[in-house]
Amino acid sequence: MKAVIQTKSPSETIRLGKRIGGLLRPGDVVALVGELGAGKTQFIKGLAEGVGVGKPTYISSPSFTLINEYPGRVPFYHVDLFRLEREKDAEELGLEDYFQGDGITAIEWADKIPSLLPKEMLLIHIAYTGKNSRSLEIIGKGKHYEDLVKGLPEFGIRNSEYGVWNAK
Fold it and tell me: What is the pLDDT of residue 168?
């Protein structure tokens, strides 16, 4: 199951992340893929707010530490693999502990660790469509995530608010 949503500004991308963050539950994994500057961190700021992290505006890419942990309704783990040279380097991070833990894990540059990602997750491809506009392809892998994508319109994420809604 997948949906494609267009946003017209960074604030819309953040709002979309917030809506989706509010639907996540402990143990969920959100994997983000996109070019540098595509909006992955903006989306994650929204996710964090939806999860209940107190000051999501302070969230930034943990490029030098690789993983930042934030308290919230449930723990929120922000993983940024931009500086990772090889997938093998990620094996030492203990990512599976995060994936199987009681928090919500959001991973930027998830395409750098394809064999380490869980089979079930929410995969989001973010692409430029203009100076401030983005296309977000949201793919549910596994029943829980497929149901989440299928239910997005019920939670106010629809065509009238973000431009284009296309679910398949």
Answer: 43
DSSP state of 92: G
Dihedral angle at the C-alpha atoms of 119, 84, 58, 105, nearest 10 degrees? Answer: 10
Query: For the segment 124-164, what is each residue's pLDDT rounded down to a tens digit?
Result: 999 999 999 999 999 999 999 999 998 887 655 554 444 44
Of 16, 1, 31, 20, the residue nearest 135 (C-alpha): 16
Q: Smallest Cα–Cα separation from 3: which of 124, 105, 106, 120?
A: 124
Per-residue burial over 70-104, b = 16 or more CB atoms within 10 Å of its CB, e = otherwise: bebebbbbbbbbeebeeeeebeebebeebbeeebb
Instruction: Decide: 41 and 78 in contact? Cβ < 8 Å.
Output: no
Which domains does the chain carry?
Answer: 2-27+38-132+146-162 (3.40.50.300)
pTM score over 0.70: yes
